[in-house]
């Protein structure tokens, strides 16, 4: 139990726990904001009330997720000052500005227009409301950009030099647009979109299995699947590109991710370990299932390309191997599973349309259950990917320039331990509350109230007339109700 008396280890566990909990929420906020903008834009353009109802339903889940994301992110700001004071002091000129940009430029924009998006249906015209939704989507994406700027700089620091223990900015452009940013932000942003589409498909699959609101959720299910047919393979491609870039920017991380201990000799390929039992003490794998020359092909796109092994680095400069090795494979497996589900579903829609009709889609129980399983799978992929990224950077808090041990505050172990316990209880409460509210929202289902105004007519207050309906209409009972309310 010596680890209980190690303040550095406890501080790392605490920040890791906070970050792992927090990262469950922003991806859905970012991706779902884009979905909401698309649906509301369709409503404004087509005057089809079906899109209004879709927007209103998914907004409920967005609001729950946004709230928990904001609450769970606040302790992260505290941790920089309490547990990581030396790091904050050293990197303050850069990290302080970047986090300030995120708050002033992104969060404030998002939070300001969120009020109009949620409560402005009866107070502003449809185009203004659509603009507010667009700003929420843009603000959430901009927030992700600045956060990934900060994190990518920690992975591949650029545009700075160490002066008396502090990072002095020499080139702001190079620091912001550091080598990892295109891959880090691209991979994370695509993950946000993919996760949101999987949640959309999974929630829709739940209703289709229950044969409830089939006319409402079958189109949403199809939209999500068609989008995932593009996004899931794109994410795999971006991930592959990011992995290849690690060979240049973070070779130790790449070697740890692949449990690659020894640099391959000229003219020989590096094998790719599908599975292995890494032994860091002995600097080898006790057992491995390998594909000859596979790692060289993946990283360099040649059979004999050089891939630097962990033997190139001192043991004290090596990342721990077990966590990034297996976390990476969990991420890949979950991502491939989502891509498979998208291809399988699209094949059925194309080749077996009768099985995917409104009358029979609920009979595809294995398919729909697969989409229910895809929801925890995609969240697992995000968590595993973040673990791969962060643990693979160790033992550096700023790669190659500042060690994690040098960035931690000198606090008593008991102080860090008790704050960790309190954070765990706090996050447990809000996590359970979020799941309860989300479950109730999903079980309750969509409402089919009349919109506050007909798109394109302007004005405020109650509806002037019911919008016209095109083939994608809500269920008949709701249609009748809307007709009575609208007077059309």
From TrEMBL:
Transmembrane segments: 15-37, 57-78, 98-121, 128-149, 188-209, 221-238, 326-350, 371-388, 416-438
Protein's organism: Thiomonas bhubaneswarensis
UniProtKB keywords: Cell membrane, Electron transport, Heme, Iron, Membrane, Metal-binding, Transmembrane, Transmembrane helix, Transport
Record flagged with keyword tRNA-binding: no
Family indicated by similarity: Belongs to the cytochrome ubiquinol oxidase subunit 1 family.
Region spans: Disordered: 448-473
GO biological process: aerobic electron transport chain
Protein name: Cytochrome bd-I ubiquinol oxidase subunit 1 apoprotein
Membrane topology note: Multi-pass membrane protein
